[in-house]
Design a protein that fits this description.
Elements (H helix, E strand, L loop, with lengths): L2 H14 L2 H7 L9 E3 L5 E3 L2 E6 L2 E6 L1 E4 L2 E7 L10 E8 L2 E5 L5 H11 L6 E8 L5 E17 L2 E2 L8 E6 L2 E5 L22 E5 L7 E4 L2 E10 L8 E8 L3 E6 L4 H12 L9 E8 L6 E17 L11 E15 L1 H4 L1
Antiparallel strand pairs: 1-2, 3-4, 3-9, 5-8, 6-7, 8-12, 9-10, 10-12, 10-13, 10-16, 11-15, 14-19, 15-18, 16-17, 18-21, 19-20, 20-21
């Protein structure tokens, strides 16, 4: 084990202060109960959630899930008795899943960007629950978390609902925190830049994308492995393989020419070496369709399927085709925090 790993492990052990803290943590079956008691004993229903990263309020969340603590039940081989004894294993800390909009702090978007580049930054912080008057009522702290999934919502010209990204992150440990009290304030409340999935711009080298009506949702995944060597109860988490998904793009038949030529050359004629791959980008725009919120850059795109969408007889609809592309690498850039 490296010197840095030993130092982090020692620091965590010192923080926990032994098994006494774990006993208090075991009660947390999830990030928060939907209902609970405030400091004055009155019941409340959580109406707002705030993300705190490294001690800084980083924005309000659309939703939050996970963050619980559990242990596997281990069944021992039967002995002299007619039943098997059981006990539990070490505690496991579940991933958090949060939905975010376009008004988070720069630190959140930078975490996404650096993770996609293989710079696996660990983050500590809290999820703070508040009532509908924004009074902090509950808190779940997490430590040394790695970003494991980023789900980009569909870009859909026909959608009118707000769009949200979904993030998953895996902490090395969590605990029930104590909210500092008072009203929450930070990015994203009363200043939300409306992010509509219909406001997007797709570009691909030498391919006409003006008739593209939809890009399906896609997820970038980062595997995480537990370094479960030794006798400690809580294990370090180490990043593994970074996976970039395929893209599914819907285009009207009237704008199909470039896509057909690319498919014929790349798939049918076999000219599919690296020199024939393309680069591109997907930009999400604000409601004025001028300000850029997010840009996702695509590198080494290759088309591998082009098929007509399901069509029905006598239906007065535009004929559409689906193109499927592989992508070797993606990059994420945000201007949302700067214009929120």
């Amino acid at each position: 084990m490296s010197e840095g790993t030993e130092e982090r492990g020692t620091s965590r052990a010192r923080f926990l202060g032994g098994a006494a803290v774990l006993a208090g943590m075991a009660a947390g079956a999830g990030a928060f109960a939907r209902e609970g008691k405030s400091a004055d004993g009155r019941s409340y229903v959580s109406g707002n959630f705030m993300l705190d990263l490294d001690g800084a309020k980083s924005g309000f969340l659309k939703s939050v899930d996970g963050g619980g603590i559990k242990a596997d039940v281990i069944q021992e081989p039967p002995g002299e008795s007619y039943y098997s004894k059981k006990h539990i294993g070490n505690p496991k800390y579940e991933e958090f899943e949060i939905a975010i909009g376009a008004a988070m702090s720069k630190a959140v978007y930078d975490w996404i960007s650096t993770s996609w580049q293989g710079n696996h930054t660990r983050k500590s912080g809290s999820i703070i629950a508040a009532d509908f008057q924004l009074n902090a009522v509950a808190q779940r702290d997490f430590f040394n978390a790695l970003l494991t999934e980023t789900t980009i919502p569909s870009a859909d010209a026909g959608s009118k609902d707000p769009a949200y990204m979904t993030l998953k992150f895996a902490p090395e440990l969590t605990r029930k925190g104590k909210p500092s009290g008072g009203k929450l304030s930070g990015p994203g409340k009363g200043e939300q830049k409306l992010w509509l999935p219909s406001n997007f711009r797709l570009t691909i080298d030498k391919v006409d994308c003006s008739k593209v009506s939809k890009i399906d949702s896609f997820t970038i995944k980062q595997s995480v492995a537990s370094d479960d060597v030794g006798e400690q109860r809580d294990y370090l988490k180490e990043p593994g393989k970074l996976e970039f998904p395929n893209l599914t793009i819907t285009v009207a038949e009237t704008g199909l020419d470039d896509w057909e030529r690319w498919h014929e050359d790349f798939v049918i004629n076999g000219n599919n070496g690296q020199e024939s791959e393309k680069n591109g980008s997907l930009v999400f725009l604000s409601s004025n369709r001028a300000d850029e919120l997010f840009e996702i850059r695509f590198f080494n795109l290759g088309i591998f399927s082009l098929s007509q969408d399901k069509a029905e007889a006598n239906a007065d609809t535009i004929k559409r085709w689906k193109a499927e592309l592989y992508c070797e690498r993606m990059e994420f850039a945000s201007k949302a925090a700067a214009i929120a």
